[in-house]
């Protein structure tokens, strides 16, 4: 049975975060390679933890990773996942770290946005593992993509002082939004399998509800916070992102379980009745970021994020491992106290990074 471990609350938040970092660094894991999306998400959390704490442990982990990886992304120019790791390189660049090499980042961004490809001509993409997507003709065809690349483009636009990259981001973001955002439920379908058409072929939960995956929506709202952090206040489309952020935040608040942690299936919590760390971590990060940046009302949202953070802390083991993370997937599935992934640790660090700021703001 799922239950938080209150004994973990004796650690300070910073101690818990460092323990999570140390455990993950000692237990590296990735789906495809050290520059893949799983490490991209993990090291995004490490970057934000360093930004909040200035602890050199995080900076050392980031720098050593980048050097090992020779500052490279993963290998598919058209796939949003493969740009995610470059956000850490861009962060190190902002710090003035010696030896930062953004040339591979420059190359994949130019290819991703501008390289001629069949999909730009409305032809099916080739090379996807998921067979049901061989007929997709969009760049960002799944909601996870909205975490993987839009924040990179927002950071890159700032680095280059070139709004072109924000405009490109907005173009492709709107395609995904129009395809996957459910205007009734105010949540994102993971992909077109779960978009309701109103006929008998629609996939439903056993309780009859639409299927909305927790981590999938976590990718989206976590990515929104990261995009907004780097987007100029006067950017012409900023209001769209702020309103979408607030709309999703309100919906997530409405469906937050009493113990603070969201279930893997947001509208069918009974399907897998336990909290899950990756989705909940991204939500906790995003909602706390919203409070800290005056987009969300503190009186309304602070009790929710404190409850969620307590739940996340209770999912950490004595050695620092963060459990209750759903494994790699594309729809709601169960987790256990022994299931962990690097992106789950990244979500934990992201959440902690904003919780620390919340405490400072309240002092």
Describe the structure.
The protein has a two-stranded antiparallel sheet with strand order 1-2. A hairpin with a 4-residue loop joins strand 1 (181-182) and strand 2. The protein is mainly α. The chain is 51% helix and 1% strand. The protein contains 13 helices and 2 strands.
Number of helices: 13
Query: How many whole angstroms does the radius of gyration measure?
Result: 19 Å
Q: Pick out the low-confidence regions.
A: 128-135
User: Strand share of the residues?
Assistant: under 5%
What overall form do the CA principal axes indicate? globular
The number of E-state strands comes to 2
Sheet with the most strands: spatial strand order: 1-2
Largest sheet: 2 strands, antiparallel
Structural category: mainly alpha
Features:
363 residues; mainly alpha; single chain; 13 helices; two-stranded antiparallel ribbon
Write a short abstract of this structure.
Helix content is 51%, strand content 1%. The protein is built from 13 helices and two strands; from the N terminus they run H-H-H-H-H-H-H-H-E-E-H-H-H-H-H.
Explain the layout of strands and helices.
Elements: H1 13-26, H2 37-53, H3 56-68, H4 86-95, H5 103-114, H6 145-148, H7 150-160, H8 164-180, E1 181-182, E2 187-188, H9 214-230, H10 238-254, H11 277-292, H12 298-313, H13 342-362
Antiparallel strand pairs: 1-2
Helix pairs in contact: 1-13, 2-3, 2-4, 2-13, 4-7, 7-8, 7-9, 9-10, 9-11, 10-11, 11-12, 11-13, 12-13
